[in-house]
Amino acid sequence: LLEVILPKYFQNAHLHGIVNNAGVFATFGPDDWCSTEEYLASLNVNTLGAIRVCHNFLPLVKKCKGRVVTMGSTAGRLHGLYVGPYVTAKFAVEAYMDCLRLEMRPFGVSVHILEPGAFKTDLLSEEAQHARVNKIWEKVPSVVKNEYGEQFKENFKVAWQTGVDLVANPNLQWVVDNYVHALFGFWPRLR
Prior knowledge:
Rossmann fold; 6 helices; three-stranded parallel beta sheet
């Protein structure tokens, strides 16, 4: 649809910046619990979503030598335990943005990645996280469930939530401030 609309209605338009903020962290647990579909779903939103937006709107950003700002993750630079689909997708989006940064430099377009880490939002509530673990557990083949056992699943939920409670930042304004700086700051950092 965008391929049809953009050329017709935005021939003379300019766009200062693109903000790729879409992200999903819907599946976590041992890789044995994750299907190819979980990986594809994460890649589709976290990686391909940003690529689609860039492909459709970069021509407008190039006209005014603007900026691309993308929500990456610390998980896009450091491996994580029990987060295979998410880490894979975030590594991929960071790699794409690194390539795009070099390719857009001759056009005066700067490309920036935010890597905020965990923040206390409804997505990280105990109820939401337990629901995600239970949802993926329902899909796990019986032989794998028997290998891990119900107690592993319950211990995993408690350990995961404890980790989130320890590291998740409650200050969401920090992320907003970094978006604003990346879009409008005089010398925004690349990461």
